[in-house]
Design goal:
alpha+beta; about 25% helix; about 30% strand; elongated
Length: about 110
């Protein structure tokens, strides 16, 4: 019985210790053009530039809000939102400036 109570208490402590998910709104970009300025690349649309940087140059999807840029833990989910304004729900790791992505949806 004591073991079961200890497990319940430990589980509850972990739930309260975990950081809460936040919402971040910005544009899906890539680490090559992190500030969302794709004009210098001369690849056509911003979405095409993002996708080419990811595919051809092994880039990483990022979220840019006009001021800050964050890496995204999920590198598949952002593909359909290249160069679009989105809201990312997830947990921010301040040390690595990475958002652990739970959900991405088009910004309203």
């Amino acid at each position: 019985m004591k073991k079961q109570i200890a497990i319940v208490i430990a589980s509850a402590a972990l739930m309260f210790a975990a950081p809460a998910a936040q919402k971040f709104t910005g544009t899906i970009t890539d680490d090559m053009c992190a500030k969302g300025d794709h004009k210098d690349m001369h690849m056509g649309t911003d979405a095409k530039c993002v996708n080419e940087c990811i595919k051809s140059m092994k880039g990483k999807y990022m979220l840019y809000d006009g001021k800050d840029t964050w890496a995204l833990s999920d590198q598949k989910m952002p593909a359909k939102f290249a160069a679009k304004k989105v809201t990312v729900t997830g947990t921010l790791d301040e040390a690595t400036k990475t958002i652990k992505v739970d959900k991405i949806e088009a910004a309203k």
